[in-house]
Design a protein that fits this description.
mainly alpha
């Protein structure tokens, strides 16, 4: 992953990963995970728009919502840190 680029555009990343890629390497992309309360993955998976490409606007808006300062405030279980060796 030497060529990985860091960015802040969630929508751009989704469009790139679910598009053809630079060398047609993105074949049959789909969601493999979601967050608690998202419902079935099929409900979160962006559907194809009327002109063919997927519409990522709703998923992008949800992913870009402000996050709480800590996972504990979100009601998520906090993981214990790895023990130091």
């Amino acid at each position: 992953m030497e060529e990985a680029v860091r960015g802040r555009r969630v929508g751009g990343l989704l469009c790139y990963r679910c598009g053809p890629g630079r060398w047609e390497e993105h074949v049959d992309p789909w969601l493999v995970a979601a967050w608690h309360g998202a419902g079935p993955l099929a409900a979160v998976e962006p559907a194809a728009g009327p002109d063919g490409p997927r519409d990522f606007r709703m998923l992008t808006a949800v992913l870009e919502q402000p996050r709480p300062k800590s996972a504990g405030q979100a009601g998520l279980a906090l993981l214990e840190p790895y023990p130091s060796v």
